[in-house]
Amino acid sequence: MATIRYTVPGLERGDAERVVDLLQNRLHALNDLQLTLKHVHWNVIGPNFIAVHEMLDPQVDSVREMVDDVAERIATLGGSPDGTPGALVKARTWDDYSIGRDDAIAHLGALDVVYTGVIADHRTQIEKTETLDPVTQDMLIAQAGQLEQYQWFVRAHLENSDGTLKSASSGSERGAADAAR
User: Domain residues for 36?
Assistant: First the structure.
């Protein structure tokens, strides 16, 4: 648990420490997401290359802003944000993105799985901050809304005419990539 010496007025130090810990997890997840999005941006190929390539840069930029907002919230609460690659790798509970140079649609299938994980974890932290810190909760709610919109952009490429997703039956990146093809 984070140890802090001060926090914002009206927030108990113990509550601030809990919020800092959950924000550190979000910082790692969002840092990982922006790196993954850029990796996909560089490695898409095929007929949908340019659409996906150009769709991803604004997502990268937006997620980088989220990273900065989370880190600054940690500092505001009296914590010390840890954005080093080593800290991210040590603390994360998920595997590296597993798709290299591949068809754009395959990447989108895998990226849908990535977004699902990040959004689900964001929603869990939203629930936890409801009574702890509504200011942090508000930030996370806004971020979740933006992340959900980006997932919709991804899913629009994967949707069948009957409204189902080509990759819906798979929970793994590789399985979703294969199903999306």
Answer: 13-180
